[in-house]
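The authors assume throughout that readers already know how a fold can be written as discrete tokens. The format is easy to grasp once an entry is in front of the reader. For illustration, here is how one protein appears when written out as sequence plus structure tokens:
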Amino acid sequence: MGGTNPYIKDAKVALPIAKYTLTIIDEERHEHVIEVDPARIPYSGQGLPGSILDLALGSHVALDHACGGVCACATCHVIVRTGLSACNEPTDEESDQLDDAYGLTPQSRLGCQCVPNGTQPIVVEIPAWNRNLAREPHH
């Protein structure tokens, strides 16, 4: 289970109050559609509750997260293709970590810090360069 980073301020998030759809396009271009139920948050205990990382791992969608989801690396870099305005604003700490991410775009976020508020469907892409080639298949 992920811990917390005592050296950063808590991100300001608004958790969803209604169900919404999160679509994750993985590095192999497979689409994983998740019906997010706010009553189940947190899904996995990794990253902020309700974050893309939390929802992905709780739904058995692999998303690398070397630091355990505490905003201390950029391995959970995702690109929000649809619904960015429904996500919390990045903190200075997240922006600092994203500065080290490969292939940074204006829609880039850390999966561990990006929390959708549920007001619209969200589509995120896991960039191909984030693929961990040593990953074991899901059991």
